[in-house]
Amino acid sequence: MAGKSPWGNGGGNGSDGGGDSPSGSDGDGGKSDGPRNPWVPPKGGSSEGPRRSAKIEDIFKNRGPEGPRRGGGGGGPNFRMPTRPGGKSWFPFILGGMVLLFLASTSIHLIEAREQAVVKTLGNFTRTLDPGLHISAPYPIEIVEKEDVQGVRAIQIPGSDSQVKLILTGDQNLVDLSYIVRWNINNLSNFKFRLVDPIEAVNEAAEAAMRAAVAEKELDQTFSGQGRAEIEQDVRERMQRTLDTYQAGIRVLGVEIEKADPPAEVVDAFRDVQVAEQNADAARNQARGYAQQVLAQAEGEAQAFDKVYEEYRLAPQVTRQRLYYETMERVLRDTDKTVVETGNVTPYLPLPEIRRRAQQPPAEQAAPQTSGGQ
User: Fold this and answer.
1) Where are the strands (E) in the chain, listed by range?
2) Tens-digit pLDDT profile for the chain (374 aa)?
3) Gap between the Cα atoms of 19 and 34, Å rounded
4) Is the model's pTM score more than 0.90?
5) Helices 316-332/267-314 angle, 10° precision
6) Paired strand residues for 178
């Protein structure tokens, strides 16, 4: 078969079997270099020239970590940083801009109206910054820490509603208390550097003050409104004295008792006792009311008797006769009476019958006369 063999050129004599002869000559009449590899490009870029043998470096020459590279060129990505008109790099300017931005962000500080800041120079406290725009040395030479000093902060004790905080009262009873402590910062430097954990200090001071205040009250006082108000005021004052002793830089704004209940194990019995006490109070109030009523009536009767006695001393005979008539009127008012005159003839005056007839309606009085006439 005529044509070119992929493994080399035929002999210069024009035979078609030159490809099978390792010693065949090339098209130029020169000496053949042996079989050609169709996958290796020829030397010099000509497809007709002699081909060299394959090497392992040729296979991995145009491959990189991301895969085969398309297009010519050596190794490495094709990205190049833009250059200045003079051919120099922009990298020093970019690096300088980043440094200036960092210095500005760590040197210029805007303190809000409700805030204050402390400045630490090489780790040591140096000064306090008030609200406004301030400039400091860049980080890490000076470190500025801002805090909200006017905002009200709150701590709930115990931390959740499911927890129980039992406190002993003055009459040896237990009460389950839940309360909130509200505070803010009045000295930022002391707040930052005097105590390791100022929030934990507030928590412990509140608990100690609450136990001391409740220990001076009885159980009933912890449930009443006035008693709870006194406990809250006492706890606030005790806390402030303790924190001032520690120089904590904290102002206690107030204490509010949210819950004051007996322990859950005895709550049913406690409610029964409360109901019994309420019934006892109602009975005592009723007895006091009856006693006051009887006493007022007795005092009124005594005053009336004194007035009668004064009149009696002025006119004994007249007063005696008047008392007799009033007494007989009161006794005989509701009894049946018959008036009988003395002498040989006894007139009969049936007063009860006359009274009953006077009280009957006219129709009932006329009915017997009508039937008798028929």
Assistant:
1) 63-64, 67-68, 108-111, 115-121, 124-129, 132-135, 142-148, 153-157, 166-168, 174-185, 250-261, 338-340, 348-350
2) 445 555 555 444 444 444 444 444 444 444 455 555 555 555 555 555 555 555 666 655 555 555 555 544 444 555 566 777 777 787 787 888 888 888 888 888 899 999 999 999 998 999 999 998 988 888 889 999 999 999 999 999 987 777 778 899 988 888 889 999 999 999 999 999 999 999 999 999 999 999 999 999 998 888 888 889 999 999 999 999 999 999 999 999 999 999 888 887 887 887 888 889 889 999 999 999 999 999 999 999 999 888 888 888 888 888 888 888 888 888 877 776 666 666 665 555 666 677 777 777 766 555 555 444 44
3) 9
4) no
5) 130
6) 259
The amino acid at residue 259 is: K
Strands 142-148 and 115-121: antiparallel
Question: Residues, the chain, total?
Answer: 374
